[in-house]
Amino acid sequence: MNLELENLSVKVDNKDILKDFNLKIKPGEIHAIMGPNGVGKSTLSKVIMGYPDYKIVKGDIKVDNKSIKELEITKRAKLGIFLVYQNPVSIEGVRSSEVLKSSYDAVSNEKKSLYEFITNIEDISVELNMNKDMLHREFNVGFSGGERKKNEILWLLMLKPKFIILDELDSGLDVDSLKVVTEALNKYLEENKETSVLIITHYTRILDYLKPKYVHMVKDGTIIKSGDFSLAKLIEKYGYNQSFDIKGDLTCE
Amino acid sequence: MNKICIETSEFDLKITSNEDYFLEIKKALTLKVSVCKNVQSKIIFLSKDSSIDLDIELLEFASLDIQGLGINTTLTCNTKENENSNLKSVISIASYKDSCNKININMASSNSNCNFFLNGVNLENNKLYFTVNGIINKNLENVLLEENTCIINRKDGDSKIIPNLLVDSDSTVANHSAFIGKLDDEVIRYLNSRGIEDREAKKILLRAVLLGKMDLGEAQEEFRNLLNLIID
Q: What pLDDT is recorded for position A47?
């Protein structure tokens, strides 16, 4: 999936959050957005997903050259955009498998019986080193942060999206779980070469496992520097404050 | 499970052995349930457009798990627990007509437990009131009483919870929780981001409020189907 943010300016509660934000992600590319807290990174994920509280005051969002600015959240999900949340919700009184099935029926063109569906998600849960019982428990209730993230990835692998946003995927994941999850993602990307990924992160750790083609540094709601993976290493070495000041001619092709 | 379809206005259910019951209540009913000494039982009930006047008595060492769904139902419930008895109750009311419900939980003897969950969904702009009185009498020991009451307003209904704990004993644990609110927008948006439309997302969440704490076994499908019709 080709995703383009063109001169995008966004307000929330009348406050400017993104300003003249430009980003182009081609099919099969992995991009990383990095920046300190409060610069608009998570806002970006909600804007792409279509959250109504985030008002686009200027610019456009395009998928495969078509504007999706007016499209509701559910329609964007059905187009193939998938957001892995930093803090996934929990829902008491509903089994995980029930929620996943409702989503699958809404999004997928393939029809599966309940038995086929449960078998499928149980197989995926094994791949992610999840306890199968978790699928039959209340959605994310009593799950650790890492288990909730794995549940997000299980959902992703089930829906087979074309554009993936990973919002701070590594937060709450121990190193073993991070390996398992990124292995599953890399395998998925290998099998679905046109799928694009936007990684939103503070830290470079996840980028050692999911290698981005481009890294973008965000400050005050806009991209101020772009480069390849070496930009991430620069940030790791100097921190954000110093990196913002370093002049460089690292550019994306 | 023994299935009983009740079409009379009064019904006495005396439970003398460890058996379970599914009661389908067809009209306004005065229902007396008594669980005999040393007996464990489970009752599931379903009621639509009827009022229920429910009296429950548990004799010594009796145990009852009662779970029920009332659609447009007004419930008056009085419970009495004797020594070493155990009552667990999960009752849900979904209503688009005015419904004022009153529950009196009378912990009459020592060494007794009661966990009472009362869930409501106010479907339109009607009244939905729950008054829950938990009474623990003097000189009792080792009594545990928990009242949990919740109402979700689907629209702008007039909902009220009046929880009371009247405790006249030192050796007890008594808690209550009360919540009135709407469905969580953050959760709805999350489900939207998974392709689930608003209507279906709200159905899922309303079913979770009304049925989530119940263990209905074979009755699950019947309850869900009825709820789907009502919520739609």
A: 95
